[in-house]
Amino acid sequence: MANRPPFALWLPSVIVCVVATATYWNALQCGFVFDDISAIKDNKDLRPHTPVANLFYNDFWGTLMTKEQSHKSYRPLTVLTFRLNYLLHQLEPWGYHATNVLLHAVVCLLYLRLCVMFLVPSTAFVAALLFAVHPIHTEAVTGVVGRAELLSAAFSLVAFLVYSNSISRSGKTGWSGLAVTIALVTCGMLCKEQGITVVGICLIYDLCIINKLYGNQLMKVVKASLGAGGQLAMTGTSSSHVGSKALHLAAASCGRTRSIFQRTAVLAMSTLALLGARMYVMGSQLPVFTRFDNPASASSFPGRHLTYSYLAVLNGWLLTFPSSLCCDWTMGTVALVESLADPRNLATLLFFFITARFVWAALIQGDPIIITAFSWMVLPFLPASNLFFPVGFVVAERVLYIPSMGFCLLVAYGWSKLANYAKPSWSKVVHLGFLLLFAFHCLKTYARNFDWESEQAIFSAGLRVNQRNAKLFNNVGHALESQAQYTEALEYFLQAVKVQDDDIGAHINVGRTYNNLGRFKEAEEAYLKAKSLLPRAKPGESYQARIAPNHLNVFLNLANLIARNETRLGEADALYRQAISMRADYTQAYINRGDILIKMNRTKEAQEVYEKALFYDRNNPDIYYNLGVVLLEQGKPSQALAYLERALELEPDHQASLLNSAIVLQEMAANDKVHHDVKYHFKNFI
User: Fold this and answer.
1) Angle, to 10 degrees, between the axis of helix 587-599 and the axis of helix 569-582?
2) What's the pLDDT tens digit per position in 168-191?
3) How much helix, strand and coil, in percent to the nearest 5, is found in the chain?
4) Residue 290, by phi and psi: left (phi above 0), alpha (psi -120 to 50) or beta?
5) Taking the CA of residue 62 as centre, how many other CA atoms within 13 Å lie in the half-sphere pointing to its CB?
6) What DSSP element (H or E) covers 506?
7) Looking at residue 538, what is its pLDDT?
8) Torsion angle of C-alpha atoms 109, 112, 116, 118, degrees rounded to 10
9) 30 CB-near residues (< 8 Å, 6+ apart)
């Protein structure tokens, strides 16, 4: 890699920034969809009354990291930016989307700066333009939760640029720059886990590009360093058997090797420390996913490994031909590759053969651009590859945001080769080809943004390209259900059951919709069907580790349904107890069971149940409210008021607690202070 002369970056930077912003301008009109609901609307960590410290104990969705139902996605800095958005404009979606678009523009500018390190300015400009408008980025930019990718990418790029400036071709190390690099890597990792992979990219850049330690050169340098070091030790610096020039080169080689080793050791130890801290935060537990989230992870050899290999091909295909994009690739979207006879194995072999050929040629020829491109493509993708641990998805387009940097760099490099070596007439065709590709990507991205406008729009768009995923039918049904269109929602839930008959969630959805339509008998049948599909406990095996927490909702829904009949309250209580036996920390089951016990005039037992729930979740305002209600039933208004006040401390807008505390205060009115509190609580309630 030759040193690039300085040149005016301001014009290309302005164009790239304008293109990136214009392409995603229509994203500002989109709402909260899909994962945005859990991460933004339902996440209490965004609310001002929640201590900021909670962000560093909870996962991306607001669940305590040590809880088994946590997804173990630890991204406190990303959540902190969401919290800042909430502070400025609460739950107005445009502000969240505007922040994402701005971050994407910043990443594009940083990426342009990266590209000019390896490519001539015009080719670097092409790479940055392709990256700015690539349709695969819509999920990361237009989906609010994609901010984790944007922040991680920004920190990774800055970390790489700082690291590249902290080392020199003479072998010297700028230790302050290295310290800043480690700090940036830490920040990137706290935005999204894959941020740590930039350490590997930095090492490859250091070893293979700056110091050219690849292939035969690596062996020669190692041997020369060892040989020179031996001679220096045996002869001393003044020996006449070794010429002064040879001694100088040997000493330089040893010093250079020592400097490389020191940098590598510091980065390696820092990485291990970060990984150790990450494991500690997540309680040394991997997240629990069902076979519906990632079917290949539940299959056996060779199906699991063949499918995992094919998924790498599919991700490469999406980068190359991003035409059929989908927000959800789980469940039956990608059929398992269960035998060697599956023709998709040919695509896998071809893909890995071409990849290996490129990498081998790059290492032998020492091509810094191809080495850099593949390091940015491969390393950031590894956490999502199922190579080290199963992930909770089949394909996720947003995880390709950083890998696409390497892809765009490679495409621009190939384009420049064609443009430079083709005949003048063909050179025009090559340039026209880029313009057409750029135009198609712009139009595809702009059109794709409209799919993220609403829940119904994004899931309906998914069904246009994917009819094998029951989750998409379920989600369209949820969108219709939220609009009280129960009959239409039922059609989609029934279709989900048809596509995936053993989908517990789909049967629960059918039952709930029947319940909303007043068809209680059919609702009970649907719930019983869902209950029958739950996995059976095995001797010596933890039951709760093999069942998705949301699937236990079947017990709550069925119990709530049959509790409509006062003669069946005992059956409802038995269902709640069964749910609790399967998952001791299932707090909602405790809350619902306490409600049933109150109806059965067993208030003392209800109090014990609520107190047990409080043991597992001390920050749940509903539990404190219910304890207050129980104590009111027992004629203990002062104690009840204490619990109601605690509920309001945790959630100042808890309507039921506001109303009941005001009523209690009114009944206890004995002085002006109490009357003042009554007015205060009624005012807040209104």
Assistant:
1) 160
2) 655 677 888 899 999 999 999 999
3) 75, 0, 25
4) beta
5) 20
6) helix 504-516
7) 57
8) 130
9) 93, 97, 142, 449, 452, 453, 454
